[in-house]
Every structure is written in structure tokens, then in C-alpha cells.
Amino acid sequence: MESLTQTIQAVPLNHYILLSAIIFSIGVMGVLLRRNAIVIFMSVELMLNSVNLLLTAFSVYRGDASGQVFVFFIMALAAAEVAVGLAIIVMIYRNTNSIDINVLNRLKW
Amino acid sequence: MTTLIIISVLPIVILYLGLYKVQKALLPVTVVGLLAALGAAVMQWDNNAEPIYHGMMLFNNFSVAFSVVSIVSTILILLLSKGYFERISNHIAEYYAIILFSLVGIIVMVSYHNLTMLFIGIEIMSVSLYILAGIRKSDFASNEAALKYFLMGAFSTGFLLFGITLIYGSSGSFDLDVIRDWVVTHPRNIDPLFYTGIMLIIIGLCFKVGAAPFHFWTPDVYEGAPSLITLFMSTVVKVAGFAAFLRLFSACFLTIAGFWTPVLLVITIITLFIGNITALYQQSFKRMMAFSSISHAGYLLFAIVALGAGSANSIFVYATAYSIASIIAFGALILVRQQTGSDNFEGFNGLAKKNPFLALVLTVSMLSLAGIPLTAGFIGKFFMFSGALAHYNFWLVIIAVVNAIISIFYYFRVIIAMYFRSAERAEVEVPAYYKFVLGFSAVVTIVIGIYPTFISSLI
Lengths: 109, 459
Description:
The complex is a heterodimer of chains A (109) and B (459). Chain A has 109 residues and is mostly helical. Chain A has a single domain (2-100), classed as Helix Hairpins (Orthogonal Bundle), CATH 1.10.287. Chain A has helices at residues 2-9, 13-33, 37-62, 66-96. The longest helix of chain A is centred in the last third of the chain and has 31 residues, at 66-96. Chain A is elongated, with a radius of gyration of 18 Å. The termini of chain A are far apart. Chain B is 76% helix and 0% strand. Chain B is built from 19 helices and no strands. In chain B, 58% of the residues are buried. The mean pLDDT of chain B is 91. The chains are: A mainly alpha (109), B mainly alpha (459). Chains A and B meet through α2, α3 and α4 of A and α5, α6 and α9 of B.
């Protein structure tokens, strides 16, 4: 455990922050630009995982375990979200034979 | 705390009742359980609460008041559900259970004392709502609402989490008290990470409450979801979102209000204009109510822009007034829709001749939403505006008054349709449950409007 902490601390904290910000932005762009529901969904997961990475880095640098506990909560709730989300996508696929979100245009102003 | 335990155990009991096919007992058991939870919440009033479970939760008067509003609104909404879910499918127990699970998340959201619990509460609530939005499995609008709500909800959760992480990174804790002390002891050199974190949390929470640049999912989801679920989303869920918003900002970020107030001010003004002006052009009553809920989110944001000792109270009064008025409006919509099959304003033509009671309570609700004196909505707006004036936000109040005048146009369209347009129609049958809920809500609206003192100094 001690060596693991040292390995993580070998990289400066700023690098973790930059990396997470970049991954988070890729996720945001994915949600905004892609049209396939599954790909959008994967982009959301990318956003959540960048948060996990950053939380772990902060937690190691501060020597405080609560950040890592938060990561477990995020993982558990993301799994719950995946279960519900995939069910919704399957329901849409059964009705329209498509998971492209451009078919979702019945409700418009 | 007992409240949370009762509401968590209740849906499991309901699921067992569904398993053994005791359909008749579902609604009574749910209502009795919620009344017990309500009693347990009221017992907690004024007992000098301390944070419990290692600072995770804090049941103070603020949480008790908002729990009571949420539970009472849920009871009223569930009474309207009598005979509603049966038309969708046979799995009624599941629908009640999921609504109750969502209520569990709401109770956590109004009583958290640690950002972990804020996240968990929001997720418990949202995941249940994704399912509820899509319970009409073969109806395309309901499918679309569920997917849109799910994608936007998950997206906004990402922003909220990134914000929480940055605040943890700079202050070193998720605990609200520790974060507040950190802000107070570092007045000069708060690092940019913390400010970015606050901005991301504002974005995440504005998505959840449907404030303006982040509101685009609201009308589609509210229109597509079944009316009863829309009612739940636009009252209980919105109130809980604002309670969580206010709790975080008044507990932690009060001393650096100069940084985030301008941002929220802009969001508030955009929200008011977009909500009200777009609502003018709607042909569907349900979609008009969706835009009206966006504009009410704008009024509710006033309390956070003008953060002070009275903020909690003004949000409480406004949220109560808004919730009961919306319950009447959607209750009437469900009945009218059953008869005419459409959500449009034409469906209300000539309602006053055949159903004077329904037309009267709907008029009370519309007057309250528009903020006409002697109704609860006026008292709510009065508290919001006087709070803003205490912070010398004159322009904000002038803009809000202009918007209140715009809103009168579209609320009065319903009243005009009911009283002055004639149409050949049969009498709408109003079941006893509906009569009770609609009558009770109308009476509460008028009583708060005439005697505001008993509710106005609670928190």
C-alpha cells in the first residue's frame, strides 16, 4: 500500500488534474456531438471515470481515505444507472428498431 | 431519521403486497405509511439537531419543513393515482414502490450534511424517475421522455461530480462544516480549483431544477411522461432540488457570495424570460405547465441570489404555494384528458357550465400560479421580491414584475376557455378522491393567501 501511494505521488498532482479535465472534456464533447444512444452513454461513463481518477489522486495526495470511499459510491451508482439506462435503450429499440437519437423528434415545440 | 427508515421500508412492504396480489391494500398502506413518516418528521421539530452518522446527515428544522412539504405533496399525488396506474398495466405495486424510492432520495437531498449524501440522494431520486418517465412502454412519447431525461440526468450528474471533486481537492473534505470553515479561514487565497468547482456544481444543479440555459430537456420530458409522473417531477422533485441547492450554498459558500451571485443573477433573468415568453405560444396545456414550471424555477432562484436569513423561509412558502396549485392544475388536466383525449386548451372550453366545481378550483390554481392577491402564490412572490429588495436588486424585481404580468396572459387563457368559450360537451365525472384532493388544495391555497402568518415564520 505504501509503495502504491509513492508510485501515484511520483506524478505531480497538476498532471492528474489536467488528464482528468481532458478526459472529462472528451466525454462532454461525445455527449454533445454523437448521435448514437450507446455512444452517448459511453461518453457519460467516461465523464464519471475521469472524476474517479481525479478523486483517487486527490485522496492519495491528501492522505485522506474519504475520497476513495466516494469512488466506490460513484461506481455503485453508475452501475445502477447503467442497468436502468440500458433497459430504456432496449425499450426504445423494440419500438423503433433504431438507437439513433435523431428518431427522438416527436416532442417538439 | 425515523422518517427516512419508514419511507425506505415502505416500498419493500408494497412490493410484497404486489407479489401476493393484494391490489386493494396498496393505496391505503402507502398513505398510512406516509402519514406515519410525516408524524415522525414533525416529532423532530425544534430538537436542536446535531449531525448524525459521522456528520453525514442533519435533521434540522429546514429538513423537517421540506420533508413535510414533500411527503404531503406525495400523499396528495398518490390519492390522484387511484385508478390511474391500472390503465397502464397490472404492475401497480411497482409504480407505488418506485415513487416511494424516489421520495427516499428526496428526503436524503433535503437533509444531507456531506456532499457524498447529496450525490447519493440525487441519484436515488433520479434513477427512480428515469423509470417512472417511461412506464408507458409502448407509447412513443413516454419512451422518448425517458431516454431524454436519462441522458440529460446522467450528463448533469457528471458536472455535479466534477464540481464536488474539485471542491474536495482544494478544501480536503466533503463535510459542509469543514468546507465552510476552510472558506472562512482562507479568504484571500482560495485557489481557482474551488471556484471552478462552484461553477460546475451550479451547472449540475441548474440542470436538475430546470433553470434556463440548461432547461431544454424540461418541456419534452414533462410533455412525454404520463401526467401523474409529470406532476410528481414538477412539484416534489423541483422543490427538493431547490432545497438541496439552498442548503449547500447557504451552508458553505455564503461568505464568497460576491463570486457566484452575478452568475446566478444572469441565470435567473434568462430563466424568467424564456419560461414566460415561450409559454405564451403553447397550444397544449401540459406543455404550457412545463414552461410555467421553468419560470417558477426562475422565481425560486431569487432566494438563492438574495441569500440571507429569510431565504429558507421564502423558498418554503413559494414551494408550498406552487406545489398545491400544480396539483390542482394537473388533477384537472388528467380528468379533462380522460374525456377529450387531448392536452390542448380547447379541451377546457365550456367546462364551467357542466363542472362548476372543477372550473372553480382550476381558477383558484391559475390565480395562485399567476400570483394574484388573496392566493398563496401572491404570498410566495411577495416573500421572494422583498428578499431581493433587501439586497437592493431593484432591476431584478422590476424584471420579475414584468414577467409576472406576462404570465397572467397564459394563465388566464385557461380561465377564459372555461368560462367564456362555449362547446358541446358532457359532464366530466369527478371521483371522490379527486374531489377531496382538489378541494383540499384549493382551500389551502386560499387560507395561506388570507392568513400567511402561520406559515411565514416557520423555519
